[in-house]
Design goal:
two-stranded parallel ribbon, three-stranded parallel β-sheet, Rossmann fold, globular, 130 residues, mainly alpha
């Protein structure tokens, strides 16, 4: 996947930890997670906010979060989120994640392409289609 910069969406992280992605996707994500990768603060909240997960899953979520760079909400991300929400019917968490990717020139790794693919300038990689 080269030197591109990737923002990992919550669903991709869950599918990776659960090892339910296709082998090629698991291998590609292994290589990304060996380098520099990113989460939005929203992804961190979602991943660490689950109630009914095993201790092992929770520990793996913490490992991923701690190995990543987290983008907090900045004025630029907030402004872009507002713009995205005005232009598209999209849930606030998804708009923040999309705005984070747009503001920081990141490719979102997600299977949730339907909600964000209509956003101009967004770059998406669905791990199920690698």
């Amino acid at each position: 996947m080269g030197r591109a910069k990737y923002l990992i969406d919550t669903n991709a992280a869950i599918d990776y930890i659960g090892e339910i992605l296709p082998d090629k996707a698991l291998n590609e994500l292994d290589s990304i997670f060996d380098g520099k990768f990113y989460f939005s603060i929203i992804n961190k909240i979602e991943l660490l906010g689950f109630k009914n997960i095993s201790a092992d899953e929770e520990q793996n979520f913490y490992k991923l979060i701690n190995a990543s760079t987290i983008f907090n909400l900045t004025d630029d991300i907030v402004t872009k989120t507002i713009e995205v929400r005005k232009q598209h019917k999209i849930k606030l968490p998804d708009a923040i994640i999309a705005a984070t990717a747009l503001t920081n020139n990141l490719i979102i790794i997600t299977r949730n392409t339907k909600d964000i693919e209509k956003i101009k300038g967004i770059k998406i990689l669905n791990p199920y289609y690698l």
